Amino acid sequence: MDSSQSRCCSFSSVSRTHPRPSGVTMDGFSISGSKSTQKHTLSQKRKTLPFHFSMGSHLSPWPTHASGQTILQKRKPCSSDDYQRRSGSWQQPLSTAKPRYLEQLENYLRKELLLLDLGTDNSQELRLQPYREIFEFFIEDFKTYKPLLSSIKNAYEVMLAHQREKIRALEPLKAKLVTVNEGCNEKILAMRAEERNELSMLKTEKMHLLKLIDKKNEEKISLQSEPPPHQVTKLRKNLAEEYLHYLTERDARKILIADLNELRYQREDMTLAQSPEVWGEDPVMLTLALKMARQDLTRAQMELNTMKANFGDVVPRRDFEMQEKTNKDLQEQGFGESIPAFLRFEGPVQNKKPTKKDVVSLLKDVWKERLAGDKKEKFPDFFFSFLERRFGPRDAIAWAYTLFENIKLFRSNEVMSQFYAVLMGKRKESVYINQKELLAYLLKEMTNADSQNEGLITMEQFSTILKNTFPLKKGEHIQELMEIGGWHPNSSNADLLNYRSLFMEDEEGHSEPFVQKLWEQYMDEKDEYLQELKQELGMELRDEVTVYKMRVALMNIDPSLDKQTLRAYLSQAFQLLPSELPEEGNEKEHSIATGLKTAMEQLQAADIKRMGPREQEPAN
Predict the structure, then answer these.
(1) Per-domain boundaries in the chain
(2) Distance CA 12, CA 15 (A)
(3) Nearest 5 degrees, angle CA 498-CA 503-CA 509?
(4) Which of 110, 363, 427, 495 is most buried (most C-beta within 10 Å)?
């Protein structure tokens, strides 16, 4: 008999009454006295199965039988008898059906699983129970493998029991963890509520402080916008009121003192009348003397009243002189030379309260009219004349004060800060004009390069225009301008640039970063130029410099200066007309001098820049 036949025989001899492994229940818990009950339950379930669900029937080795049959048919027989014997004993159809016993087990498993209530907490344990029962059937029916299968089952059941014990031990820790989690959540919610309350209080306090700051700023602007003459009038009024108050107090004190003296005299008279022996003199003479004294007192009192009536409003000369000096100082501050002509006014002035946009628009109109005119009139005088033409003589002074306060307060605005510097003489208007002309020239060159008139040029064209316009700029300065314009080290020179956007301004006069960088570079280059000039002179700021020394120093640091530009720089530094400057080589160059600090400040205010490299290239 071959191995397959022996295996079939061993399968058919399996008994269905073999007991379960001792010490392990169906759900994996250790038991001692319930073994018979479990065996009875399993036996009862086995009785409910169909008749062919037992091992008494023939067990097919499916699917081993099918695979074995196929292999045997393909093998070459060793002899004809052997072939006949093998083919006679194993000849079966190629398509073998699933064993009846296996189908019954699977149907039973599906049925048991459908009957389970999986909505409870121990649903997984209940789901495992049918599988345990199926495994018990295998152990009971296959007696040959029963020890091995029982040991396997016992090992898994012991491990499951161990895991359940661990889970049961962790249950209190889980409950504690849930409690701690709830406590932490409550603390977090409380902290968030406290933070929200604190944040709400801080926001309320912030709004209160912002309102207070706005109120203080309004009071500050109101006080700054109030003209000095009005303050003088107010001070005079307060001083007069205080003077009258103290004058009344003084008169009342004098009257009170006079009444007290009268009472004292009366008491002395009564004392003398009652005890004449004290004086040792004739009471009649004393009475007569007292009468004469009283007449003198009455006459003096009348004269005093007359003096009060005639000179009651007259102040002491010392007080008068002090007030006169104070008034004079104040008048010099409403009308002194240090005050611009358009602010010299006495009386209340209305604050027009324009917006930033209105102020910027008005200042641009001033510049437009200034550039279109002949520029013979001084800029402060032209500014006030413009206001008179725009708003009339009556409101011109009010607008002058209003615009002046705005450009003085909002120094961060480019248009306002530059206008303020020119208006106060801290910067020549040629600086502003030349800067605007430079921007117009750049825009024109870029427009000429834009052959398609699309508002776009390449980065290579942009770089060429910058280098041609600023031949003396350093390479890093050109690169800064290109990067602000939109160029990057990794970008291509063929990339397009919207050049018109570089020269735009918003409604409040703020320029684009490209224009701002041009202005910063211009100021830095001017500072560097003047620093080189100071080093070339080798003098301290408190020293005096002559025209000759200044001329030589300028030519040394900037050999490319032409005569006309050089005379313009000297004229600005020494505050002389070009016709008043001595010619080169004239002895007067050594006699005309000014403080170096004053000369440098004058050059700083002017449009001064380098005209060529410091060291000229050698001729070929």
Answers:
(1) 3-62+97-165, 228-319, 341-426, 528-620
(2) 8
(3) 140
(4) 363
Q: Please identify which residue in the block is written with the tokens 């079939």.
A: 8
Measured distance CA(464)–CA(449) in Å, rounded: 10
Quick check: 547 and 599 in contact, CB under 8 A? no
The per-residue pLDDT of the chain, averaged, comes to: 77
Predicted local distance difference test score (pLDDT) of residue 223: 67
Name the percent of the chain in helix, strand, coil, to the closest 5.
70, 0, 25
How far is it, in rounded angstroms, from Cα 29 to Cα 164? 9
Q: Return the ∠ at Cα 548 (arms to 542 and 552), rounded to 5°.
A: 95
3-state secondary structure of 508: coil
Residue 488, token pair as written in the block = 């990057």
Name the DSSP class of 458. Answer: E
Greater model confidence, 554 or 286: 554
Work out the pLDDT band at 38, boundaries 50, 70, 90: very low
Q: Is the pTM of this model over 0.70?
A: no
Q: How, if at all, do strands 496-498 and 544-546 pair?
A: unpaired
Other CB atoms closer than 10 Å to residue 445's CB: what's the count? 18
pLDDT reading at 15 higher than 90: no
Q: What is the sign of the dihedral through the CA atoms of 190, 196, 200 and 203?
A: positive
d(CA 511, CA 443) in angstroms, rounded, equals 14
**Sorting pLDDT into bands at 50, 70 and 90, what band is 120?**
low
Please enumerate in sequence order all residues whose Cβ is within 8 A of that of 380, keeping only pairs 6 or more positions apart, or say none: 340, 341, 342, 423
Cα–Cα distance between 16 and 12 in angstroms, integer? 11
Picking from 114, 117, 134, 115, the residue whose alpha carbon sits closest to that of residue 125 is 117
- How far is the C-alpha of 14 from the C-alpha of 89, rounded, in Å? 24
- 3-class DSSP assignment, residue 171: helix
For range 500-522, the mean pLDDT = 89
Split at pLDDT 50, 70, 90, the class of 239 is confident
Q: Which of 375, 368, 247 is nearest to 316 (CA)?
A: 247
Question: With 0-12 CB in 10 A as exposed, 13-18 as middle and 19+ as buried, what is 500?
Answer: middle
Q: Whole-angstrom Cα distance, residue 576 to residue 578? A: 6
